[in-house]
Input
Amino acid sequence: RLQQWLADSWHDDCVDPTIIRLLCRVGESKAQARAVQLAATTNEPLERRTAMISILGEVGNESCVAPLLRLLTAAKPESLQLSVVSALARFDRPEIAATLLKICPSSTGQLRSRIVAILLSRQQSAKSFLHQIDQGDFPAKEIGVDQLRPLASYHDKDLNDLVRKHWGNVTSGTPEEKLAEVRRLNNDLRAGPGDAQRGKALFAKHCATCHRLFDEGGNIGPDLTHANRKDRDYLLVSIVDPSAVIRKEYLSYVIQTKDGRALEGLILGQTANQITLVNAKNEKTTIPRDRIENMQESAVSLMPENLLRALKPEEVRDLFAFLQLR
Output
């Protein structure tokens, strides 16, 4: 009955996303060709083009990779490029990695961040990307430890050596190392007062993607507004050792897919057919359940341990001045 309805509803100038998606799902090449055509047509409404790109990423076959890559290099605005990159993430093709590696250094903003996440999600593209960093073509400081941890699941010596060379040991520190870090930071905090206004800007830069404070910020991590912020030791330990206590709703998961992707994040939503993860950069990835090879809870918080090491002592004081405001 559904197939008959689809057949009756189809016409060559169809623009209905539901009909096109369903026909693509059952393997109708004419529907995929129509989605490609609409996605590439610059005078189509942006919302419609984005919907077609999303369809290709969800249910398109590998024949849509080439037109998506052409669209990526020509597409404007950035929101459309983001849609194309997200659609391409599903496919494991060397030409995708080659294109992303080429455009990554010159990309900016959300697009740059999304490309990095996709390159790091597969073994071969991650290796090529880390070699690019090793050659000085991309700044290592832009890559967070949370993005590097899933690479350990590949047990690849070359990858592990590159990670160690540029970021050191990305596994959890020992209890002694964490205690020493808390003492060091306490000494920095005792050295003088901080500026809460400057601290607010630091919070926005380093914390607000995940945490909310005074009605500003994200919801990936706990809301800090009503946390025990007056207790400086509590705050320090929570930042230095975020994996010590992880509330159930903030447990992260590591997913390995059948086509070789390694992804980590919080479960943002799930249905009988798919799971949506969100990472520490608030980037969402939807994975069909039938493509999941393995899924397990992570013993490590999505929040990186070395968050304060990038800050100067006076910046740590400024940040804490804002965190401890009432």
Remarks:
- The mean pLDDT is 90.
- The first strand starts at residue 212 and ends at 213.
- The two ends are 62 Å apart (CA to CA).
- Residues 43 and 262 are 37 Å apart (CA to CA).
